[in-house]
Write a structure and sequence with these properties.
The complex is a heterodimer of chains A (299) and B (401). By secondary structure, chain A is an alpha/beta fold. Chain A contains ten helices and 14 strands. By secondary structure, chain B is α+β, with helices and mostly antiparallel strands. Chain B folds into three domains: 72 residues, 2-Layer Sandwich (Dna Ligase, domain 1); 130 residues, D-amino Acid Aminotransferase, Chain A, domain 1, CATH 3.30.470; 157 residues, Succinyl-CoA synthetase domains (Rossmann fold). The longest helix of chain B is centred in the middle third of the chain and has 20 residues. Classes of the chains: A alpha/beta (299), B alpha+beta (401).
Chain lengths: 299, 401
Amino acid sequence: MSILIDESTTFIIQGITGREAVTMAREVLDYGSKLIGGVTPGRKGRAVHGVPVEDTVRAFTERTRVDASVVSVPPGFAADAVFEAIDAGIKLVVVVTERIPRKQVAQFVEYAQERGVRLIGPNCLGIISPGKSKVGGVGGANTERAFKPGKIGVMSRSGGMTVEIANSLSESGLGISTAISIGGDAIIGSTYAELMPLFDSDPQTAGIAIYSEPGGRAEYELAEYMQSSGSRLPVVAFMAGRFMDEMPGMRFGHAGTIVEGKADTAVEKIANLERAGIGVAERIEDIPRLLKERLGEGA
Amino acid sequence: MRFYEYEAKQLLERHRVPLPKRKLVTDADGAAAAAFDLGGPVVLKSQVLSGGRMKAGGVKFAEGAGQAKQAAAEILKLTINGLTPVGVLVEEQRTIAQEYFAAVTYDGRAKRPVIIFSDMGGIDIEEVAEFHPEHLSRTHFSALHPFSDHIAKQAVAAVGVTGNDLTRLTSIVAALVRIFFDYDMTLAEINPIGRLDDGTIVALDAHMDMEAEARRTHAALLQQLGVPESDNRQARPPTPFEIAAAKVDAADTRGVAGNLTEFDGNLGLIIGAGGGSLTLFDAVRAAGGRPANYCEIGGNPSVAKAAALTKLICQQPKVKKIAVMMNVVSNTRVDIVARGVIKGCIEAGFDPAEKIAIFRIPGSWEEDGFQILKKYGVDYVDRSVSMHEAARRAVAKMGKR
């Protein structure tokens, strides 16, 4: 099993005729994902790598089952695209677009909650369940090497580091159950703590690796979840951006990555994660070793 | 993008929030004239983008024009957290009977905007939250459904405020919410809001941050406020190195090669992407290295763009060597970055084999990239060498400090 997606997941790409979306379409099709089409207003009748382009999301949902949509449109059009997907009844929306104004993110995140829609992102690379499907650009053209099927769930605020961490887990033999690039914005659709219950009930997943950064409260929420839920899964975290603790008020890396108060710092977050029994890796290559220790497997 | 107090107060005025009489001046004579015009005692406040002005000596009181002139001269000379004031705000000094705090921001955890209100204004709000939680309210509201003033009323009433103060504060807090939404703020704060001895309520100080991405949307407003486009409003002013890097990034829309922050070390870094840069910068420092800069490359920048950034970094006199490192890349092409950094090195007058301490970018088109690097004798590694190990090797090549 995997979470959120599997080999039967059908999806569309909104903004499919954009430069990056065209590449993404080819890569997900090459990977064997069930991409059934895409939407770009005014481009109905065209095809991208053999899948049809329509003007509206409803053109697909009216005639077939669409499990998910990947939103890859310019920031000024992203909120409307998310609303369109939700209004058309799609229950999983992955928002790749970055630099969407925060007010609009807050609006569509709230709308998704009201409609019971699972939202991933914005500012993310999507979801992959190795060997089954990927929904989004995560892993690019050489996905197989970095993402071997296995038993570790990955959640990361950085798209690039999702791949790096997956690669180290794949090389260690642990492999990946499902990896989710959750997005780097200050407000995101699904946080670590909100996705944990899905991993907890997934028999394939035996442990969790997370990538985190200064700024925001998502790591505190995860620590609370681990202490209150009785989760069966060992969790190992990597915290990047430790240097930022000395540079309050400056934004690095992602929109949500800024130290504005003590609770935003890497030092405070690490201490809090450790108090909750979460292992904190000093280096990426330590993540598989710490997970193996916790799983009772020697390195 | 943070606003100066005098700009934030202009926004409050547009939304009919009552304010003390005030005037922005840029020299001591101007302060004397302003104090004379305002009549009576005044308060003079340094206009810097930093908190802690009072503690640093950036806020002074004066009885008349003579004192105001002296105080302004001192404030204008005073840098606070490395920032030079752009002026002095001279305000009528009023007797304050009670102070309040109001802020609107996003709560990333609740994923909603929130009004934070307290009847203990003027002091550190985190302290109020910790030691006097009954004096602080947090009122989440919808970003999706229409905002209505009763939500502001709820926030104010929640700490026990009633009577005239409740109605007056409600309209101020409601105005603050509208400013927050209308101008794409990430923070809109008035602290303190003061009830004066005559019962009127005014905003005494304000802190507002607009989302950097929204600057273009609000270009007309920024023009009216006199904010130049080049004014980046970071926590410290940009260095010439940083300004040059921003130009490189802006000159070509394909991919990112910029977001450069200067440091005082000797190892130039060409690193990416967002999270990879954070990881690698830490890794260099953990290995005992001293970075000359932070930067971000990603999103598949062109050869020209990667070359321009490399050239700029190599040209810095303090940069002895550069390290080119990223996480395993998905959409950035290794061969394109390899071509770019080699070109940039050569254009700056250096031998890539000497100047590039290490190249560690695994991923798309890596075989083509490695061929090019081999041809120029550049030390490169593949994904079997971790980010931290690559950083350690680069630092080792820098020799002893």
